[in-house]
């Protein structure tokens, strides 16, 4: 039976409830009265239940579909302004004991060169990332208890934070590693991680079990209940995600929102982020064998419906998506994107290295440099932000959510975006990007919500120009 308060995966992601919700939404695709009432509720910016959200996703009335996109855009502007936070993935090791059929790192792939970075190599990767201008990383590693134990991950986090090159510094390390124990989550928290990210891949248990035929990841409940253990271990910013294309997207959308409802019900804090990757081509992986892929228009609507349903949760889109697709979707709710990404182990320090090039987890669809991404964002009217302030100021979990829900977080995001962009422009930007960025900062300065913050930012921008770094509110 569906119970969002339960700690059991089969109760908070209740298959029967997902099926009933799918049938309910199907039946009400053209129910004007119901859809109107859901849109009115969504317009109060307090989010929607999974059933209400699914009715919008399934809505078959054109004028309401346009309204859904408009509302998503309004919520994005209200909560996140025109800022887009930038990050990069850093692959530490692709040794993996699991058998995920959609991932080239699966244990039976004998073509895949297996690489585990040493601490010295991690330092070189981090310097390459710092020299691009990155401040925020998401580390990725295959699951291999002997080769990639938690001690290796912790040591790597230490190396990343301690590596400093010129004015560079990685100020926030998010972690995307396999489901683990409460004790290990506590160790990650103590190591100073930002968000713990774990993609569910698919919430459909039978599909999940057949897509993960071997290895510890086969255990659906252990994987699905990982965020509960992370929360109990003190990691209060967690990031959800599914790999769209593995199962029917309506099913995933519903279950993903049920997972968010569960975290809110059980811990009083919803997910910090939701990632929306779509399956991509990779070594030995043909995305066409997965029949549940969604086209760009359905994807836009899905992101818009997520934006409306969980206004306080950041939405992340990676370089799996092409420039044109990102351009289309960003305005409907995305708040974070990756830029200049390499999806191979060791791919930053030596992009031409054949060995690391062959070790890519998936093909990127957006291969532009970070500088090109930054300039493109600005040309589209967004502020690229390298902000990492919240967790460093202790604004995590329920403290963070409270600020979001009161719409106070905006008071920090806008100043931090401008100050961190200024750092980027001074240290890493090409002449053209710097010119565009300085003009943007000048224009956006007046949108800083209060006079006191404006004064602080003005002083700090001048200090950044004279060589000082790392200001934040
Ligand atoms: Fe291993 Fe993760 Fe790839 Fe599965 S998805 S094979 S766990 S690296
Ligand atoms: Fe994110 Fe906090 Fe920075 Fe805003 S102030 S961009 S919420 S880290």
Word description of this protein:
The chain is α/β, with parallel strands linked by helices and 473 residues long. 48% of the residues lie in helices and 9% in strands. Strands 1, 2, 3, 4, 5, 6, 7, 8 and 9 form a nine-stranded parallel sheet that branches. Strand 2, helix 7 (150-162) and strand 3 (172-176) form a beta-alpha-beta unit. The longest helix has 19 residues, at 62-80. The radius of gyration is 21 Å and the shape is globular. The N and C termini lie far apart (45 Å). The model has no long low-confidence stretch (mean pLDDT 95). Bound molecules: iron/sulfur cluster (2 copies). One iron/sulfur cluster binds at residues 96, 98, 100, 103, 105-106, 142-143, 178, 217.
Query: Any ligands, ions or cofactors bound here, and which?
Result: iron/sulfur cluster
SSE run: HHHHHEHEHEHEHHHEHEHEHEHHEHHHHH
Strand count, sense and barrel status of the largest sheet are: 9 strands, parallel
Global Rg: 21 Å
Query: Low-confidence spans: pLDDT under 50, at least 5 residues?
Result: none
Total helical segments: 21
User: What's the total count of β strands?
Assistant: 9
Rounded average pLDDT: 95
* Beta-strand content estimate: 5-15%
Question: Which helices and strands occur, and which strands form pairs?
Answer:
Blueprint: H1 9-12, H2 15-27, H3 32-42, H4 50-58, H5 62-80, E1 83-93, H6 119-132, E2 136-141, H7 150-162, E3 172-176, H8 182-190, E4 196-197, H9 205-211, H10 220-224, H11 226-232, E5 238-241, H12 249-267, E6 273-275, H13 296-309, E7 314-317, H14 323-329, E8 336-338, H15 354-357, H16 370-379, E9 383-385, H17 389-392, H18 397-405, H19 410-427, H20 431-444, H21 451-465
Parallel strand pairs: 1-2, 1-8, 1-9, 2-3, 4-5, 5-6, 6-7, 7-8
Helix pairs in contact: 2-4, 2-12, 3-5, 4-12, 4-13, 5-13, 6-7, 16-20, 19-20, 19-21
Residues 96, 98, 100, 103, 105-106, 142-143, 178, 217 line the site of one iron/sulfur cluster.
């Amino acid at each position: 039976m569906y119970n969002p308060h339960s700690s059991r995966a089969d109760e908070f992601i209740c298959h029967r409830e997902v099926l009933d919700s799918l049938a309910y939404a199907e039946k009400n695709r053209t129910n004007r009265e119901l859809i109107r009432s859901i849109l009115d509720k969504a317009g109060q910016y307090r989010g929607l239940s999974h059933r209400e959200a699914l009715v919008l996703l399934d809505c078959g009335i054109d004028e309401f579909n346009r309204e859904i996109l408009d509302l998503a855009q309004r919520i994005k502007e209200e909560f996140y302004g025109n800022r887009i936070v930038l990050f990069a993935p850093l692959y530490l090791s692709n040794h993996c004991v699991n058998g995920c059929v959609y991932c080239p790192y699966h244990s039976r792939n004998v073509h895949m060169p297996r690489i585990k970075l040493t601490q010295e190599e991690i330092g070189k990767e981090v310097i390459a990332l710092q020299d691009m201008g990155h401040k925020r990383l998401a580390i990725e590693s295959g699951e291999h208890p002997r080769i990639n134990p938690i001690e290796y991950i912790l040591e790597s986090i230490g190396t990343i934070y301690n590596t400093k090159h010129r004015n560079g510094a990685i100020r926030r390390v998010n972690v995307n590693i396999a489901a683990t124990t409460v004790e290990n989550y506590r160790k990650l928290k103590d190591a100073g991680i930002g968000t713990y990210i774990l993609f569910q891949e698919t919430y459909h248990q039978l599909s999940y079990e057949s897509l993960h035929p071997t290895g510890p990841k086969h255990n659906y409940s252990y994987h699905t209940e990982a965020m509960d253990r992370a929360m109990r271990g003190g990691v209060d910013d967690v990031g959800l995600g599914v790999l769209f294309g593995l199962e029917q997207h309506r099913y995933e959308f519903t279950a993903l929102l049920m997972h968010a409802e569960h975290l809110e019900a059980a811990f009083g804090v919803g997910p910090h982020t939701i990632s929306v990757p779509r399956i991509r081509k990779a070594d030995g992986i043909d995305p066409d064998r997965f029949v549940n892929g969604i086209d760009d228009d359905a994807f836009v609507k899905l992101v818009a419906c997520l934006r409306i349903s969980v206004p306080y949760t950041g939405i992340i889109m990676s370089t799996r998506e092409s420039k044109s697709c990102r351009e289309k979707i960003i305005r409907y709710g995305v708040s974070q994107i990756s830029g200049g990404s390499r999806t191979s182990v060791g791919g930053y320090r030596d992009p031409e290295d054949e060995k690391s090039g062959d070790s890519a987890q998936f093909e990127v669809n957006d291969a532009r440099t970070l500088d090109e991404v930054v300039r493109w964002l600005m040309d589209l009217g967004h502020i690229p932000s390298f902000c990492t302030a919240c967790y460093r100021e202790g604004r995590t979990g329920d403290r963070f959510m409270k600020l979001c829900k009161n719409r106070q977080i905006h008071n920090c995001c806008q100043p931090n975006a401008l100050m961190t962009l200024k750092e980027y422009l001074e240290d890493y930007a090409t002449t053209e990007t710097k010119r565009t960025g300085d003009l943007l900062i000048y224009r956006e300065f007046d949108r800083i919500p209060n006079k006191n913050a404006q004064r602080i930012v003005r002083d700090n921008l001048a200090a950044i120009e004279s060589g000082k770094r790392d200001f934040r509110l």
